[in-house]
Amino acid sequence: MEIDVKDDETNQDFTTREALFYHETIRPGKIEIIASKPMATQRDLSLAYSPGVAAPVKAIAEDPSLAAKYTARSNLVAVISNGTAILGLGNLGALASKPVMEGKAVLFKRFADVDAIDLELDTEDPRAFIEAVALMGPSFGGINLEDIKAPECFIIEQELRERMNVPIMHDDQHGTAIITAAGLVNACHLTGRKLEDVKVVVNGAGAAAIACTALIKSMGVRHENVLMCDRSGVIFPGRDNVDQWKSAHAVETDRRTLEEALEGADIFLGLSAKDALKPEWVKDMADQPIIFAMANPDPEITPDAAKAVRPDAIVATGRSDYPNQVNNVLGFPFIFRGALDVQATTINEEMKIAAAHAIAELARRPVPEEVAAAYGINHQFGTDYIIPAPFDPRLIEVVSSAVAKAAMDSGVALAPIEDFDLYTHSLKARLNPTTAALTNIYSLAKANPGRMVFAEAEEEVALRAAIQFRDFGYGTPILVGRTEKVREKLVELAVDDPDSYIIENSYTSQHIEPMVEYLYKRLQRRGYTERDVRRMVNQERNVFAALLVALGHGDGMISGLTRTFSQTAREIARVLDPKPGAVPFGVHMMLGKNHTTFLADTTMNERPTARELAHIARETAAVARRMGHEPRVAFLSYSTFGNPSGQWLENIREAVAILDAEEPGFEYEGEMAPDAALNPKVMKLYPFSRLSGPANVLIMPGLQSANLSAKLLRELGGDATIGPMLIGSEKPVQIAPMTAIAPDILTLAVLASAGVLG
Ligand SMILES: NC(=O)C1=CN([C@@H]2O[C@H](COP(=O)(O)OP(=O)(O)OC[C@H]3O[C@@H](n4cnc5c(N)ncnc54)[C@H](OP(=O)(O)O)[C@@H]3O)[C@@H](O)[C@H]2O)C=CC1
Ligand SMILES: CC(=O)C(=O)O
Ligand SMILES: [Mg+2]
């Protein structure tokens, strides 16, 4: 379907068009399945499939518990919906719920390394639903039910819990309840309230509302202090249209409407629909009212509207673009992680309450500096930070281990953990901090939008990246190319308003004369006449683009698609210098499943001297730190600590000695071969080594080995690669590989614009 840009509703952070584009690009949707074992040779095939596969088949037939050992089941959760209550959008059917369920699957993976697959069942009949899920029991280690409306969700969950022997959780009920309870505990703590005393109004009487109410009551809130409303108003005994689940929360009262219910209330819990809470009703709530407007995607009231009438309110929503995101994403990944890790047979009340307390307690702890810097979490406990942010890397450790422990203590863990410290550590290691750091860098770029010169805007790949750079709010692209050609391409790519883009043509630009003057001054004693310089300005796009930056018409530039790296670098160097005292060099960042490794210098210095090696190590360590990694630097060689000896080791040793004299504030070691730097078993052979773990910054002895390694790893190793990233030029300049695609160029442009590359 073509996107109707006229109907391009703007949310706070993005437009409908951007959201659709996000789902459409790279490959449709948000998930793919990747094999976890080699599958290259005939032998691999024989082992993975017939005949080798018969061995685990027979083993599991004999002992079903072995499925956890020989299949992916024990880390596999199904996210199952029938689309009858998709967020707060209502019953839009099974198929339409797929983007949400794919999204939940991705969050499982991203936040807790749980493999998840979405299943959309085309039925509103609870019986059919139950049968379908129960029959799939052998497939999954856990079942996350999602976006199924009340009251069917209660029947479905209860029966499946009785029939199946794996953790089952209807996330909208219990995930939401756990996070809401955690947020409420903290909001009450901040306002000096006790759960036993608070007066609560719950708006909504569906899956989420009923479970939240039940949980907070089990934690101390008094039944008679909670008024629940649905579309017909307050639920009281004997009211029409009240089923058994709603009636459990009916209270004798003469209040009939939400407005009446809110008079003097301490807390509003909205689990209903957009705009259900009118600002004028908030006025009559108690002092320092607590307002959780959790309907998605649009809350019952926006924080701005609530604060306008009640500046003393603590406000939370389900969204990530306001402070205090009370959303079940803080719960389900970590709850299932803990449950799966001990092979829990269920998710019981003890596990839920443990999760709620762990989340609440985490928000009250100070955010460590490195977490704040790398993840952009700059709040400390207070009215705008009552609940941790989903990106907080401590969540997996704290919540999953609390859930695992509660499962063990309550006797539902089939595989109790013996060494809990080791377990907590292994939880942390499941997350790769780069993903979070990149997310933070992207928001940093958005907060300080720059002007990025795209030197090769006639190239479709560069132009697509430039369009996204602007559409996603990272800044203003300045497009270098022939005006008509670039304009035509913009039209072809269906941008909203091609004339709103800045196009700089090197033949007609108004900046040509000052450019010629500037460059002639630089080059007149290097064998160039003014005519040579003018020709260069007109004809060499990299020179022209770099001049735009040098003269202040852009903040940085990106190029590299049409010339080799070295030629592009040479052209730019005619205009821009390195930073004072810096040696420009290149870094490749290799992103593996659970590791990130920085390789340098992969682009510039053929035979770095000892001083240059030390400089490259220092600067690459700084880049690693800005990306959220504590650097462990290895100076690589064919030799490990003098074995074998050779004539090329001296400058590496001298580089290490230079750092020794400086005490640079990070771990470094060398000379060493890659296995001694990366393989813990080999590292044990060198107990005197100063590296406390496998190296994550590899300083290569020369350009040959560096560039070869980076390219070999990219082509054969399977790691995603970012780079080369150019470090050390006076202005942010990035040179993409000639084979780059639009997302690669966009990433480099954003990294340059955010100023994190140094
Ligand atoms: N922040 C978070 O983490 C989460 C938020 N939610 C949000 O909670 C909401 C409900 O979801 P869920 O419980 O799964 O859905 P359900 O369909 O089970 O329940 C919806 C409930 O909302 C009530 N409702 C709808 N509109 C209004 C209104 N204007 N005034 C009062 N009540 C209203 C319905 O009333 P009636 O019974 O009369 O039809 C029903 O009781 C959604 O907006 C969802 O996005 C849900 C889960 C997690
Ligand atoms: C967050 C969520 O699960 C919902 O709004 O339905
Ligand atoms: Mg949901």
Automatic annotation (TrEMBL):
<dbReference type="InterPro" id="IPR042113">
    <property type="entry name" value="P_AcTrfase_dom1"/>
</dbReference>
<feature type="binding site">
    <location>
        <position position="172"/>
    </location>
    <ligand>
        <name>a divalent metal cation</name>
    </ligand>
</feature>
<dbReference type="GO" id="GO:0051287">
    <property type="term" value="F:NAD binding"/>
</dbReference>
<comment type="similarity">
    <text>In the C-terminal section; belongs to the phosphate acetyltransferase and butyryltransferase family.</text>
</comment>
<dbReference type="GO" id="GO:0046872">
    <property type="term" value="F:metal ion binding"/>
</dbReference>
<dbReference type="GO" id="GO:0006108">
    <property type="term" value="P:malate metabolic process"/>
</dbReference>
<keyword id="KW-0560">Oxidoreductase</keyword>
<dbReference type="InterPro" id="IPR037062">
    <property type="entry name" value="Malic_N_dom_sf"/>
</dbReference>
<comment type="similarity">
    <text>In the N-terminal section; belongs to the malic enzymes family.</text>
</comment>
<dbReference type="InterPro" id="IPR042112">
    <property type="entry name" value="P_AcTrfase_dom2"/>
</dbReference>
<dbReference type="GO" id="GO:0016746">
    <property type="term" value="F:acyltransferase activity"/>
</dbReference>
<dbReference type="InterPro" id="IPR036291">
    <property type="entry name" value="NAD(P)-bd_dom_sf"/>
</dbReference>
<feature type="binding site">
    <location>
        <position position="147"/>
    </location>
    <ligand>
        <name>a divalent metal cation</name>
    </ligand>
</feature>
<dbReference type="InterPro" id="IPR012301">
    <property type="entry name" value="Malic_N_dom"/>
</dbReference>
<feature type="domain" description="Malic enzyme N-terminal">
    <location>
        <begin position="28"/>
        <end position="161"/>
    </location>
</feature>
<dbReference type="InterPro" id="IPR046346">
    <property type="entry name" value="Aminoacid_DH-like_N_sf"/>
</dbReference>
<feature type="binding site">
    <location>
        <begin position="86"/>
        <end position="93"/>
    </location>
    <ligand>
        <name>NADP(+)</name>
    </ligand>
</feature>
<keyword id="KW-0521">NADP</keyword>
<dbReference type="InterPro" id="IPR045213">
    <property type="entry name" value="Malic_NAD-bd_bact_type"/>
</dbReference>
<dbReference type="Pfam" id="PF01515">
    <property type="entry name" value="PTA_PTB"/>
</dbReference>
<protein>
    <submittedName>
        <fullName>NADP-dependent malic enzyme</fullName>
    </submittedName>
</protein>
<dbReference type="Pfam" id="PF00390">
    <property type="entry name" value="malic"/>
</dbReference>
<keyword id="KW-0479">Metal-binding</keyword>
<dbReference type="InterPro" id="IPR002505">
    <property type="entry name" value="PTA_PTB"/>
</dbReference>
<feature type="binding site">
    <location>
        <position position="296"/>
    </location>
    <ligand>
        <name>a divalent metal cation</name>
    </ligand>
</feature>
<dbReference type="InterPro" id="IPR012188">
    <property type="entry name" value="ME_PTA"/>
</dbReference>
<dbReference type="InterPro" id="IPR015884">
    <property type="entry name" value="Malic_enzyme_CS"/>
</dbReference>
<dbReference type="GO" id="GO:0016616">
    <property type="term" value="F:oxidoreductase activity, acting on the CH-OH group of donors, NAD or NADP as acceptor"/>
</dbReference>
<dbReference type="Pfam" id="PF03949">
    <property type="entry name" value="Malic_M"/>
</dbReference>
<feature type="domain" description="Malic enzyme NAD-binding">
    <location>
        <begin position="173"/>
        <end position="408"/>
    </location>
</feature>
<feature type="active site" description="Proton acceptor">
    <location>
        <position position="104"/>
    </location>
</feature>
<dbReference type="GO" id="GO:0004470">
    <property type="term" value="F:malic enzyme activity"/>
</dbReference>
<keyword id="KW-0511">Multifunctional enzyme</keyword>
<dbReference type="InterPro" id="IPR051674">
    <property type="entry name" value="Malate_Decarboxylase"/>
</dbReference>
<feature type="binding site">
    <location>
        <position position="146"/>
    </location>
    <ligand>
        <name>a divalent metal cation</name>
    </ligand>
</feature>
<dbReference type="InterPro" id="IPR012302">
    <property type="entry name" value="Malic_NAD-bd"/>
</dbReference>
